[in-house]
Amino acid sequence: MGAILSIAKTTIGEAIRRRVLLVILLVGVLFLVIAPGLSVLSLRQNYTVLTSFTLGVIQLTSAVIAIVLTVYLLPNEVERRTIYTILSKPVYRWHFLLGKYLGAVGALGMMMLLMSTVLVLVFRIMQQQASMDDVLQLATAPIFFFVQMSLLAAVAMFFSTFVSPIVNFFLSGGVYLVGTLFSPVFQDLSNNQTLPAAVKGAATVIHSIVPNFAQYNIQGGIINQGPELRSIELYYVQIVVYALFYIAAFLIAGMMIFDRKEV
Amino acid sequence: MNLAIETKDLTKTYKTSSGPQSVVKNLDLQVERGEIFGFLGPNGAGKTTTIKILLGIIDSTSGEASVLGNPAGDIESHKKLSYLPEKPYYYEHMTGVEIMQFYASLFGIKDRDLCERLLNRVNLGNDMNRPISQYSKGMQQRIGLAQSLLNDPELLFLDEPTGGLDPIAHIEIRDLILKFRDEGRTVFISSHELSDVERICDRVAIINKGELVHQGRLDQLLSGGRIEITADNLTEDVANKFRGDDFTVSFKNGRLIADIPDSAHPGEMLDAIRAANGDIVSVIPRRKRLEDLFLESVAGDNVLKGRKMSKMTDDHNAAEAVEVAKEEGAN
Asked: Are B202 and B70 contained in the same domain?
């Protein structure tokens, strides 16, 4: 466990100093800061636009950071030969992979915490009439984005055990897009009794393999508060357990591939 | 025999588009405990692949490899060995002591004093709190050696430990390696620095295209030196008498330069020169060097003969230049 945590800590130290990630983070923070200025241009309700825009910025920025951060973690270690020094110590390969993943999630969490802090500050300043409950509810969304991004990082980590960083970037990005935009569609198709068995089967397979990232976008409920979030605590527990299951599955599959990989 | 490393018929084959390609072929290595073992070969000979197999980073296709009595890659062996890769990279945001603490933590060691002691041992005591990004190449190599001592290893794998270092750093690293042996550790060095290997290694193995060409004690491998005989005032007929399979003879303007094996009874040649009223200028015994053995092993006889001839031509030209200078001085 000590080796895993040490590798994770070192990974965080490296990640938070990577310029490309800091630039992406800076752009995200910049958009959060200028968001109030953009939202006043909208004809719609100011609060709705501001919430939607800022949460969208956090989600998009975090997704790009999660992918860019994770796809290079293993290849960089091989290219710089640090992996050989580490694996020649009494460290199992799964220790290494898990340490790298936890480090990526840790760095991602720190960056998302910064963006969330900026988000709350922007709202406290621009929406002074908003209650503390509103702000707390708003702050819930990034927490689930973090769960979502941890899942995305596990997907990218899995792919990084057997594809190049560039291919991984598009694969992970593709899985994220499909899981965010089309997961409900595949779910509906797999439940549709009128469809041919082959189509239903294919939809079921895709729906089972590609994680449903869409369910972590809870800002819909925050922006348009309605009946769909009535059993909210149970829903939250369910989607966190779902994420943990998929993270474990992707990491175990990645560990099995990485264990046989010639580095 | 008490072996630190042993391989039997070790083979590594990769599948390529042009068919299977073996980078290590039936390699039989024996590295004794407490010795410095040089592992030599040209680029692409299979040295790093062999080290990776011994460390368990990659698997062999066939054959056996044991390290410190355990199968290669066994985690128990990893507690007692260390590896310093060629051109190592360290996380640049960390300081020297932080790097040491990181690697110590991989062994479950939480002893900052040990880290500092080892940094002092490699003369980095004053720089331990500086970021690695400010370290010179020699300092990075020294911290590499320091981290390789964290677990008090019985066996060290050093891949090109002196590569690209300035002469002072070079000597420092070489001296450290000798101290490792004095402490009873086994050191397995892969290197292109033949003069270093010749100076510090007890035994060597030379591989070429994945195959073992030579393995043994340096003094045994380097036995069988050559003798260079230079004589003046001879005719070409006399010179032609000495030409033979393992004799390299050049003749120009009455000067003969012959390079013969020391087993070839040079006395007979000297008698013949005297009998022909020639003047013996010099008789220089030349010990076989590791460089010669290496070239014999990896480049083939033609290259070696060409190199000898080239050297003799250089000597000949140098001798002529001395004579011309003497004549000019006399005039």
From this structure: yes
User: Of the candidates B221, B245, B273, which is a domain's last residue?
Assistant: B221
Domain count, chain B: 2
Tell me the C-alpha distance between B54 and B37, whole Å: 14
Q: Are B181 and B150 in contact (CB under 8 A)?
A: no
For B53-87, the DSSP string reads HHHTSS--SEEEEEETTEETT-HHHHTSEEEE-SS
Same domain, B81 and B211: yes
State which H helix or E strand residue B158 sits in. Answer: strand B155-159
Q: pLDDT tens for residues A36-72?
A: 877 666 655 677 778 888 899 999 999 999 999 999 9
Chain B residues with CB inside 8 Å of A74's CB?
none
pLDDT, one tens digit per residue, over A142-195 is 999 999 999 999 999 999 999 999 999 999 999 999 999 888 788 888 888 888
Q: Which residue is closest to A9 within chain B, CA to CA?
A: B102
Domain segments of chain A: what residues?
A: 2-260
B-facing residues of A in 69-88 (CB < 8 A) are 80-82, 84-88
Report the complex ipTM: 0.85
Which burial class, exposed, middle or buried, applies to B236 when counting CB atoms under 10 A from its CB (0-12, 13-18, 19+)? exposed
Does residue B181 share a domain with residue B91?
A: yes
Asked if B78 lies within 8 A of A89 by C-beta distance, the reply is yes
Do residues A213 and A176 touch, judged by C-beta distance below 8 A? Answer: yes
Tell me the three state secondary structure of residue B112.
helix
Strand, helix or coil for residue B17: coil
CATH number, domain with residue B8 = 3.40.50.300
Q: What is the spatial distance between Cα B118 and Cα B124, in angstroms, rounded to a whole number?
A: 9
**Contact indicator for B30, B86 with CB cutoff of 8 Å:** no
The 8-class DSSP code of residue B125 comes to G
Domain identity same for B296 and B160: no
CA distance B213 to B207: 5
CB-defined contacts A:B, below 8 A: 71
Residue A101 CB partners (closer than 8 Å, separation 6+): A70, A153, A154, A157, A251
Q: Can you name the residues that pair with B29 across neighbouring β-strands?
A: B7
Q: Pick from B221, B254, B276: which residue ends a domain?
A: B221
Do B149 and B236 sit in the same domain of this protein? Answer: no
Say yes or no: B32 and B148 in one domain.
yes
Q: What is the DSSP string of A35-65?
A: HHHHHTT-SS-HHHHHHHHHHHHHHHHHHHH
Range of the domain at B140: 3-221
